[in-house]
Amino acid sequence: MSERARVILWRLVIFVALVGAWEWLTGVKAISRTPGLYWLDPFFVSRPSLIVQRFVYLASDQVRLSIWQMALSTVQSTLWGFVVGVSTGFVAGLVLGRNDRLARIFEPYIVAFNSLPRIALVPLITMIFGFGLLAKIVLAWTIVFFIVFFNTFQGARSVDADLIHSARFLGGSDRQIMRTVIVPSALAWTFASLTPSISFALIGVVVGEFLGGESGGGLGYLIIQSLGTLNAADMMVALISLGVIGIVMALGIKQIEMRLLRWRPEYRRRA
Amino acid sequence: MRRPRIVVRDLTKTFHDGGREVAAVQDVSVEIRDQEFVAIVGPSGCGKSTILNMIGGLVTPTAGSVAIDGARVDGSVPSQVGYVFQKDTVFPWRTVAANIALGLEYRGVPRAAAQRRVRDAVALAGLAGFEDAFPATLSGGMRQRVALMRTLVVEPQILLMDEPFGALDTHTKITLHAELLTLWEARHQTVVFVTHDLSEAITLADRIVVMSRRPGRIKLVHEVALARPRDVIKLRETDEYAREYGAIWRVLGEEFAGPA
Predict the structure, then answer these.
(1) How far is the C-alpha of A66 from the C-alpha of A124, rounded, in Å?
(2) pLDDT tens digits, chain B, 260 residues: what are they?
(3) Which CATH superfamily does the domain covering B1-80+157-244 fall into?
(4) Which of A163, A168, A262 comes nearest B91 by C-beta?
(5) Residue B136 to residue A173, Cβ atoms within 8 A
(6) ipTM of the predicted structure?
(7) How many CB pairs under 8 A join A and B?
(8) Which range marks the domain in which residue A150 is found?
(9) Does residue B94 sit at the A interface (CB-CB below 8 Å)?
């Protein structure tokens, strides 16, 4: 058996064992006949079979807001927050990274705003932008912006001076050097921040959905709603869906990153 | 005698080092004539790269002046000058062909013409088959070939080279000496070549400027009396080469004696 197959097999074994144990332990009574006393109480951790049942139900058209709609809303807001955050963070990082005076002027503001726990902003953002999609996007943006900003800033500052000199000797104007030397150099740093950015965008969106209510929709709303009804199964459905969404988006971004950075030796080897 | 292209007069550069003034280059005057291949040799830290950077307009002199074709070099890069750095300055995110095309792109050379010139340059440098390779997959010698062709493809009349082969092994270095000489024989650019390797200087140059230890002053200007075209390998076995080497080493060697 190849090493790869062995690893996959072990992963499967662990998965089956964990889910099996979960299903079994939540079905066995710790003390016989005493109601409610299980080895693992399904009231808190639910049961795999129950989760599947609830998933099928939530995915059907019997519910007003299906899990698909909620997932779509979450993904949509995450991607918007990501795109807006990455583009604004990149531009700001590039501008301040190449302009020492501006960087010195803005430094205290950036540090202060970035030190603020973003969750503390949720009520204010909700007050300003309401309970819909926009508030979630803004929240994701406030997080993603800074991740991308700091990376790009660093990248724009650490452009090799000799590369710029070389370009100048080849006849490059300031504009051409910006486009062909500084932007590509900084982009390498920016790309490295994309995978964490998409994960943090998702965090921002879910936190926004906690407060956003039904009009914001999303899986975060399902979690809060399940808390209200003490429904662990629905909560698990939301958590597992979020996990899947998080993995798929991170893998997608990783693919794009590898494609764009294929000139780097460390990406070539894996590709 | 050919007209002077680069005129360096009383060039001095001092750096600040923790409140102390350190002279890197002191009162250097030299004229480099059209189509001449001049090497500057000296111990490390003698300011030879600083001189090159002042000629190229990358460093502003503390005193004295540099003029290229009669125009004073003043804090900007002269357009007829090409520069090859010691450090790897090939753009890692561009393929070999795209690296070589960069200068043509900057100068707005039409696409078809640019492609033809890049193709010729690639063939000339023995890089055929590697056009679409990224620099990370190339050896140090090949990357330096790309850097050299990228500079030459825009046809600079003056070439400044700062220890371009300093980081390469002896074998690659000698191969590139032969290639550089072939390219130079074809176009006869005016070259200023900085190196700490005396054999390299003798192999390549018409004239060798020997620098003293810091602060760098000119100790000796030596005409290399070796016929061209030169065979970079056979050259080293000849008596003439040994004579040239001995003559310069007597002067340069003094700079290596004593505390470094």
Answers:
(1) 29
(2) 789 999 999 999 998 888 888 889 999 999 999 999 999 998 887 889 999 999 999 899 999 999 999 889 887 788 889 999 988 899 999 999 999 999 999 999 999 999 999 999 998 888 889 999 999 999 988 999 999 999 999 999 999 999 999 888 888 899 899 989 999 998 899 999 999 899 999 999 999 999 988 888 898 999 998 888 899 889 989 999 999 999 899 888 887 765 54
(3) P-loop containing nucleotide triphosphate hydrolases (3.40.50.300)
(4) A163
(5) no
(6) 0.87
(7) 63
(8) 47-270
(9) yes
